[in-house]
Amino acid sequence: MNKISNGLYVLTARDGKKDNGCIVNAVVFLDAKPSSVIVSIRKENYTHDMVKITGLFNISVLTVETPPKVFNHFGYQSGRDINKFEECETENRASNGVLYVPKFTNSYLSCKVTGVGDFPTHTVFTADVTEIMELGDKPSITYDYFLSNIKL
Fold first, then answer.
1. What span, in angstroms and rounded, lies between the C-alpha atoms of 127 and 135?
2. Rounded to an integer, what distance in angstroms lies between the CA atom of residue 107 and that of residue 72?
3. Which of 51, 137, 57 is nearest to 101 (CA)?
């Protein structure tokens, strides 16, 4: 399965006053008019619960320059236990009120959920893209690049 080309992203959400994010690798461009995506989030992730409640999320598209600490921070600890944005050097809030990760990111998408698919370990959300912002021109990271070049 590692040979299937996927990117790596930080998916962020906000529930009330709490911000959170997690690493996801299943984001698919669905349609251009209206712009829409499909994203899969593991049910055990706290961010999953936030998206399910609010119907809003952002996707920060990570670049090949992303250091291991970003993957460790957003991928290997729970937002139920820590504030994942407490020590971030930079953070920005999109027009939907949800934070995105501007550092090591070449773009972000703000999304509003339009559909939900339930699977045993994951929920698949379809969403309209409400905002797209380009932040740089560094190449996006793929899962294959991560496995070959990033050492955790």
1. 21
2. 21
3. 57
Contact 65, 137 (CB under 8 A): no
What is the token pair recorded at 37?
Answer: 């995506």
CA distance 17 to 14: 7
Q: What is the pLDDT of residues 46-91, one digit of tens each?
A: 999 999 999 999 999 999 999 999 998 898 888 888 888 887 766 6
53, 33 in Cβ contact below 8 A? no
Would the pTM count as exceeding 0.70? yes
Give strand pairing partners of 131: 110
Residue 140 tokens, joined: 């996006």
CA distance 17 to 5: 35
